[in-house]
Each structure stands twice: as structure tokens, then as C-alpha cells.
Write a structure and sequence with these properties.
The complex is a heterodimer of chains A (91) and B (361).
Chain A: E1 2-5, E2 19-22, E3 26-27, H1 28-38, H2 40-46, E4 57-61, E5 64-65, E6 75-76, E7 81-86
Parallel strand pairs in A: 1-7
Antiparallel strand pairs in A: 1-2, 3-6, 4-5, 4-7
Helix pairs in contact in A: 1-2
Chain B: E1 3-9, E2 12-18, E3 26-31, E4 35-43, E5 50-57, E6 61-67, E7 94-100, E8 109-114, E9 117-121, E10 129-130, H1 132-135, E11 151-157, E12 165-170, E13 173-177, E14 185-186, E15 207-212, E16 220-224, E17 228-231, E18 239-240, E19 249-250, E20 254-255, E21 263-265, E22 267-270, E23 273-276, E24 283-286, E25 294-296, E26 314-316, E27 324-327, E28 333-336, E29 344-347, E30 353-360
Antiparallel strand pairs in B: 1-2, 1-30, 2-3, 4-5, 5-6, 7-8, 8-9, 9-10, 11-12, 12-13, 13-14, 15-16, 16-17, 17-18, 19-22, 20-21, 21-24, 22-23, 24-25, 26-27, 27-28, 28-29
Classes of the chains: A alpha+beta (91), B mainly beta (361).
Chain lengths: 91, 361
């Protein structure tokens, strides 16, 4: 099991939940794919149709930016916490 | 009768409604806050009017939402309503245009996108499918990107023939299909591309906006990146109608919905000086298909004026007499109830206005 922390602006896509539980571990791609099955509207806010994490969406695995862990290939072990945070962007 | 004015801005959608003949307006919003609403449509072909908004979050990407209760609530499908198929290797930047088709196809809505592509919906704008033939056009690799990105920003269904449709893109120019999108051909003869070594190319022009005449569907009007043109042959060859304007630069081009030959524009001084000509807020109107133009400024700010009007930030409504509207990059929206003879302020202090559309609902 992996816990996914949902940022405030996206909680409306998941019935108001601040955290979700995903019954898969492996890579970040595996986790996000599993998430997309249950919460497609959340998933498409995080990744584009090519599956790439959107430029101004940051995803942390146990506190570490996934871009430093291999991106979507980042390992997400059982019990890990995946945190989604909007980056500081916009005007 | 209620008139609805939808105002897409850089930070959300605002809706203005009037129930007293467009004299006073009530404003609501922002709907979809913190998204750039580049495209909005009011689809009045349906028994219940449908609003469509194409919005882009700088964080969470683009989407299209619909409302069947004039903006009180919005719906989005679970899956992305506009998305490039996996084999294209592309991803949607934003939806630049949402255009209901003609009356013969009441459930068809077109979407023009960045990167330059056309999508078609057969469920009244809930979900869309890529028009493959335009995406796979051999010219596509040579289409360029202007400052706003590379996008199909104009979609013009033929009012009587569902098989015929025109699109315009920056840069790339005008393309036509006469077989419901199965094949496409450029239609830019006579439109100058001063920014290219060959100034008269087959395609590659930076057309900013194209509008179709109310009376003659073969007559089109184009505001180009320098150059204002008219076509009398369905948009294949073009002639300049800029002689009576103070500048041939600008973004919008709006045709009267019922009066043949009447069009409006908002000229800017030049590509290198994107302010209203003489720094005065003036709409220009032609009643003879671009042969002559008159400046319209009654009710508009009299002093030095610097904001520009973007390509979709001017429109006409379907009321009688026709109303005309424009929004500025400084967040003001002006309206006219008399085809532009006089103007009044509908809203001010909004975020930068990207698009406006108005209709009786």
C-alpha cells in the first residue's frame, strides 16, 4: 500500500479526500497508473496524455522530488508516501 | 429576454447577464478561477443553451467544461475531453477555440487547439476526437509558432454545407476542407507574409482571425499580422481591404451576424507598436465589406489609451439590433447596443480579457 497526499486545489476531484491509499507499489508510474484507474480526473491534472508529469506539478516520494529519483521510474516501496504539490508558478 | 456575455480572462471566466435590453449587467465570477479561459462558446442551438469553456491551469493543464444552467454548475467528463491520441506523441497545450457547427449538425462542436489541430465533438462538446487528416497534413512540420504558441485559433463551419469547413492558424494560415475534414488545402493566395523571405508563400502566413460574411458564405474577412483582407471565393484568394484603416495590424475581425458586408476591427499601430492607433480607443466598422471604414468612439475613453484587444476578445451577439462587445488586456469590457455607434462600460478591473462571446439565452 502507498499513501498519496492530494493538494487542496485537487481534492474536489477525489470527493474532498486529502489522502488516498493505492494498493500497488513499484515505480511512481505504477502508482500513478493505478490512481488513474480509480480517479481519472485527478490523474489527468497531474499528467498529460503522454503520461508525463505536468511541468508545474511536483511529486515527492517520501519527501524527495521524484525528478531526482528517476522521474516516473522512481521506486515507490510499500508504505511510502507520495505527495503531490503544485509548484510556485503563475502570476 | 436575457442576454449573456461570457468573458474569458487570464484568471477565469466571468459571466455578465442583462434582462433589460442590455442596459444594465450583472456580473458573476470568476468561474474556473486561476485558469486562462482562451475559448468560450454559447451554444444556442439546444433547447437549453449550453456554455462551453476551454480553460488552462498553469499547474494542472487544459480542459473543457460545459454548463447547461448558464454557469451555475459545470460538468467535465472523467477522461480528458480533448486529448491527442497516443500515437501522435503530442499533448494538448490549450483549447483556443470552441465553435458550434451549423444547424444541420446540432450536436457537433469543433475545437481548435495548440499545437495546431482540429478536434470534433459529436456530443455537443463533452468529448472530442482529433481530425486526423489535418494533423497528418504534409505541411504541418513547417507550421510555425507565434508568440501565443502554434494554434488553430479560428474554426469556420459552412452555414449550409456540413462538409465544408475552414480553419486558420498562427502561423500556417487558412486551410479548407470540402469533404468533412477528410482532406485539407491551404487558401492563402494574396495574403502577405512580410516576415518570411518569400513574402507570398502557399502557406505559413500569420492570420490572426477570420470571419464569415452574414449574407454570402463565400465571402470571408481576415485580420492578418499586418494586412486586412477579404475573400470572395470562399477563402482561396484574398484582396486587401486595409486602405481605409489607419493601420493594417490588429487581432480581432468580427462579422455582423445578419447584415451582409458589415464588419468590425480594432486596429493597433503596428507589430512593433501594439497600442491602439494614435493611442486612442477606437473600433473601426465597415458597412461595405471593407471598401470604406469609419472610426467609432462614442462612449469610449477619450484620453490616451494603451490596451490591446486580442483576437477573440471582440464579438457580436444575436439580438436585434446587434450588440457588439470587446474586452481589453487591462480588464475592461465595453458593449454597444447599436452596432457600434455608441459604447458603454460593462465591466472593469477584471484580469486581462482573452475572449468574449454573447447571445440571447
Amino acid at each position: 500500500m502507498v499513501t498519496v497526499l492530494v493538494p487542496g486545489p485537487l481534492r474536489g476531484e477525489v470527493g474532498g479526500a486529502a489522502r488516498l491509499t493505492v494498493a500497488v507499489a513499484g515505480t511512481l508510474r505504477d502508482v500513478l497508473d493505478e490512481l488513474a484507474g480509480e480517479w481519472p480526473r485527478l490523474a489527468r491534472r497531474l499528467r498529460d496524455e503522454r503520461g508525463e508529469v505536468r511541468r508545474h506539478v511536483n511529486v515527492y516520494v517520501d519527501g524527495e522530488d521524484c525528478r531526482h529519483l528517476g522521474g516516473l521510474d522512481a521506486p515507490v516501496p510499500p508504505g511510502a508516501e507520495v505527495q503531490v504539490l503544485p509548484s510556485v508558478a503563475g502570476g | 429576454m436575457t442576454t449573456l456575455l461570457a468573458i474569458g480572462t487570464g484568471k477565469g471566466l466571468f459571466l455578465a447577464t442583462s434582462t433589460d435590453g442590455r442596459r444594465t449587467w450583472q456580473l458573476s465570477g470568476p468561474h474556473h478561477p486561476m485558469t486562462g479561459v482562451y475559448a468560450v462558446a454559447v451554444d444556442t442551438r439546444r433547447e437549453v443553451p449550453r456554455l462551453l469553456a476551454g480553460m488552462t491551469s498553469s499547474h494542472f493543464g487544459p480542459s473543457v467544461a460545459t454548463s447547461d444552467d448558464l454557469g451555475a454548475s459545470w460538468q467535465e467528463p472523467e477522461q480528458a475531453p480533448v486529448a491527442f491520441p497516443a500515437d501522435t506523441g503530442a499533448s494538448l497545450g490549450r483549447v483556443w477555440q470552441l465553435t458550434p457547427a451549423g444547424p444541420a449538425e446540432p450536436d457537433v462542436v469543433w475545437a481548435g487547439t495548440e499545437p495546431s489541430a482540429l478536434f470534433r465533438s459529436t456530443d455537443a462538446g463533452r468529448t472530442f476526437e482529433l481530425v486526423r487528416a489535418l494533423w497528418e497534413h504534409p505541411h504541418r512540420e513547417q507550421w510555425g509558432a507565434g508568440f501565443g504558441g502554434q494554434a488553430v485559433h479560428t474554426v469556420l463551419p459552412h452555414p449550409h454545407d456540413p462538409a465544408r469547413i475552414a480553419v486558420a492558424m498562427s502561423t500556417g494560415g487558412v486551410y479548407h476542407s470540402a469533404d468533412a475534414g477528410a482532406t485539407w488545402a491551404p487558401g492563402n493566395t494574396g495574403i502577405r507574409a512580410y516576415f518570411l523571405p518569400d513574402e507570398w508563400p502557399e502557406f505559413g502566413q500569420c492570420v490572426h482571425k477570420v470571419a464569415r460574411d452574414a449574407g454570402d458564405p463565400e465571402r470571408l474577412y481576415a485580420q492578418n499580422h499586418h494586412g486586412v483582407y477579404r475573400s470572395d471565393d470562399g477563402g482561396h484568394t484574398w484582396l486587401s481591404i486595409a486602405a481605409g484603416l489607419p493601420s493594417d495590424f490588429g487581432f480581432p475581425m468580427v462579422a455582423h451576424p445578419t447584415r451582409p458586408g458589415m464588419i468590425w476591427s480594432f486596429p493597433l499601430a503596428a507589430d512593433s507598436r501594439r497600442f491602439p492607433v494614435d493611442e486612442r480607443c477606437r473600433v473601426y466598422r465597415s458597412a461595405d465589406a471593407g471598401g470604406t471604414w469609419e472610426a467609432l468612439s462614442a462612449g469610449l475613453p477619450a484620453g490616451p489609451y494603451f490596451p490591446a484587444v486580442l483576437r477573440d476578445a471582440m464579438c457580436a451577439d444575436d439580438a436585434d439590433p446587434t450588440g457588439v462587445y470587446f474586452g481589453t488586456r487591462s480588464g475592461e469590457v465595453y458593449a454597444s447596443r447599436d452596432e457600434g455607434d455608441s459604447w458603454f462600460l460593462v465591466a472593469a478591473h477584471l484580469p486581462d480579457v482573452l475572449c468574449v462571446r454573447a447571445a440571447e439565452v
